[in-house]
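Next up, a specimen:

>
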Amino acid sequence: MPESLAALEQQRSSILTQILELGDFRSGSITAINGRCGKPNCHCHQPNQPVHGPNFRLTRKINGKTVSESFSSAAELHKAQREVEAFHRFRQLSQELLEMNERICRARPVADTLSPEKKKRRKPSNRKLHTK
């Protein structure tokens, strides 16, 4: 049984409310980097010694270029993790919103989509005017 238009519009409003409640978000992904440093005398270059890390970085595209950002504290890392998670939730909700709008467009009757001016406008006659 198809859902009513009012129910679909209510679901759309719910999705929009969830988007408004997201708060701060930003795109990208956070990765952990482990590796050797550039200092040849450092312990990380010795056999059987641990490498440096994990160092966490936020990687994202800005104007078509990949940019990485490091974090100076655990608090900065946690803040960025929350913002990236919120962005992923935003993308999910955006997809749900698109799907809901498509369902609304299919459910809405054609007559409802016409503006009052277009409903009242008379179609021009195909009859030719006879002038003498």
Q: What stands out?
A: The chain is about 45% helix and 20% strand. The first strand starts at residue 29 and ends at 35. The beta strands are 29-35, 52-62, 65-70.
